Amino acid sequence: MGRSRQISSSGLWASLTGWGKTRLGSLMCIAVALHGGRAWWVAPSYPVSAVGWRGIRQLARQIPDTDIRHVDRIITMPSGGTVQVRSADNPDSLRGEGLDFVVLDECAFIKEAAWTEALRPALSDRQGRALFISTPKGRNWFWRHWQRGYDGSDGEWKSWRFPTSSNPYIPVSEIEAAKNSLPDRIFRQEYLAEFIDDAGGVFRGVMDAATAEEQTQATPGHAYVMGVDWGKYNDFTVLAMVDATNGEVVAVDRFNQIDWAIQTGRLKALYERFMPDTIIAERNSMGDPLVEQLIGDGLPVMAFTTTNASKAQIIDGLALAFERKDIKILADPVLVSELQAFEAQRLPSGMLRYSAPDGMHDDTVMALAMAWHGLARGGFIWGLA
Predict the structure, then answer these.
(1) What integer pLDDT is reported at residue 152 of this predicted model?
(2) Mind telling me which residue stretches traverse the membrane in this protein (predicted)?
């Protein structure tokens, strides 16, 4: 029981980049190692662990006679103590090592099994301690442990929450700009350090928005925008047509495993039905020659290059449209399921990477996001009542 109580003397942070939590964790790891102890820094993946490694390495370089092994990401102090940076993408790889201290960085994105089945038993061997630091991700296992210290029900745990607004080095104008440009869910999680119930999903109110009716042709006086996400074998090509006059999705065409000539033929057929002012089409890989061909055929195509940054921009815009109830979609089962399953993961840079869960597709999401991006960029909807 004594060991369990010692292990539970843990700090749990729900914080954000720029608040010094990485610096604090690095200092604590170095302090343990200087006294001959064994400390680990554990992150959700190897790339994310680079953040902790940089901070620990910079501190260790200031200590004479310290051995820094970059390949293994392990630092040995003159005392014999060590700090090692590890990845939790395979929890079983963390088993079997006795530890005095461990930092779980962005632990809301780490599998709970890494803590319960590997790291906690390793701390038990030496009556060690743990520090959890993370941005929230819904009310998962990190939230449950964080609650133990925050509500005072368990004296062996201590928890803190630091929203960006409490950081004196970040201008208020920057926070206000983020609030005005991001979906409410993203802002509350990333800037206010709140545990949001539906934080695993990107789009809110999908079913409430699924009230649009499919149309076979354009409504006189209405303007349209088409989004195109290309695919051929494993992925699907999706054409999404949005009525720019009222923000309603009026047609979605989804297909794969057919020749490019047939795909462009289906696109032209949909174009002729609605005559959109703009077609936003992905140009990555096989999309580039198709875009050039369509432009040569006289279609109003604008090429879109998908990167992590550009994808985040159009996804945030689409999420904001759902948040503000600006958009109505078809009750198409594939479209609805892909929107509901779409998720965000944190990158080492601090940015979010948007994608479908493993084994699922996001083709309808991307086509719709591109169409909405073209609609908003063209200024079609801002005059709506």
Answers:
(1) 59
(2) none
Q: Are 38 and 126 in contact (CB under 8 A)?
A: yes
Task: Give the pLDDT of residue 380.
Answer: 55
The hierarchical CATH code for the domain 2-166 is 3.40.50.300
Least Cα distance to 16 among 260, 352, 316, 300 occurs for: 352
pLDDT higher than 70, residue 161: yes
* Calpha distance 299→277 (Å, rounded): 9
Q: Which CATH number fits domain 206-377: 3.30.420.240, 3.40.50.300, 3.40.640.10, 3.40.250.10?
A: 3.30.420.240
Reading phi first (left if > 0) and then psi (alpha if -120 to 50, else beta), residue 36 is in left
Q: Provide the token pair at 264.
A: 């462009």
How many CB atoms within 10 Å of residue 384? Answer: 10
Report, as an integer, the average pLDDT of 218-224: 96
For residue 329, give the 3-state DSSP assignment: coil
Per-residue confidence (pLDDT) for residue 96, from 0 to 100: 78
- Render 6-35 in DSSP notation, one character per residue: HHT-EEEEE--TTSSHHHHHHHHHHHHHHT
Over 60: is that where the pLDDT of 253 sits? yes
Rg (CA), the chain: 25
Q: What tokens were used for 231?
A: 């695919």
Q: Are residues 303 and 288 in contact, defined by beta-carbon separation less than 8 angstroms? A: yes
Q: At what angle do helices 287-296 and 260-274 cross, to 10 degrees?
A: 50
140 within 8 A of 172, measured Cβ to Cβ: no
CB of 26 closer than 8 Å to CB of 59: yes
pLDDT at 14 over 60: no
Residue 329, pLDDT above cutoff 50: yes
Of the candidates 224, 206, 226, the one whose C-alpha atom is nearest the C-alpha of residue 267 is 226
What is the arrangement of strands in the sheet containing 248-255, beginning at the earlier edge strand? Answer: 248-255, 237-243, 224-229, 278-282, 301-304
